[in-house]
Amino acid sequence: MNIKQEQLWIKRIKKKDEDALFELIQNYGPWVKAIIRKKLIYFPQEQEECFNDTFLKAWEQIDKYNPSKGSLQNWIGAIAVYVSIDIYRKCSKLLDEVPLRDDDISKEDAPEAILIKREYEEQLLTLLDELKESDKELFIQLFFNGKSYDEMAAELGVKKEYLYNRISRGRKNLFKSKEELL
After folding, report:
1. DSSP 3-state percent helix, strand, coil across the chain (nearest 5)
2. Pseudo-torsion of CA 127, 132, 138, 139, nearest 10°?
3. Distances from the Cα of 92 to the Cαs of 33, 96, 113, in angstroms?
4. For residues 8, 10, 13 and 18, what is the CA-based torsion angle, rounded to 10 degrees?
């Protein structure tokens, strides 16, 4: 997309022009859907919610877009990735809460739920392989094992702010490598 068109959309969206958002969705929608489909392949019922949330965040946070950091398309793609991760986490928690007693679930559902969870864990671990080993472990402890920043800071003997900085840097690295994984 040309830069002038993106600048025009940005100005119009800042003025809350819904037609501009509609045009943005028409132009970038298929690309955003591809990102979401790849991230939420086993949760098709959540893909539409993710799509809507992505463009809603772009609409609400257009003032945070910085053209010097990349194109509007890439910014919206990054939003889609992060919204997908959030929805994946929500769905993963639901999978963790699936009852495991035979009388609570059918035998057909249990292997499928386990397979889906394993597939997503593998996809996320592949993404995390882009990080240094210490940062990868930090992400796993905080976001998969549910440890708090306070617990991790105490365990590592560092300040929480240090952990926030490492997570921030790690997210930036993941964002840079996302293009290769898409």
Report:
1. 80, 0, 20
2. -10
3. 21, 6, 10
4. 50
30 and 68 both lie in a single domain: yes
Identify residue 77 by its one-letter amino acid code: G
Looking at the fold, whether 17 and 64 belong to one and the same domain comes out as: yes
- Give the model's confidence band at 98: pLDDT under 50 very low, under 70 low, under 90 confident, else very high: very low
112 and 67 in a single domain? The answer is yes
Quote the CA–CA distance of 72 and 104 in Å, as a whole number: 47
Six-digit token string for 57: 């965040």
The torsion region of residue 164 among left (phi > 0), alpha (psi -120 to 50) and beta comes to: alpha
Tell whether 64 and 141 lie within a shared domain: no
DSSP 62: G
- For the domain that residue 55 is a member of, what is the CATH number? 1.10.1740.10
Domain that holds residue 153: 129-182
pLDDT-derived band at 25 (thresholds 50, 70, 90) equals very high
- Quote the pTM value: 0.53
User: Residues 116, 134: one domain?
Assistant: no
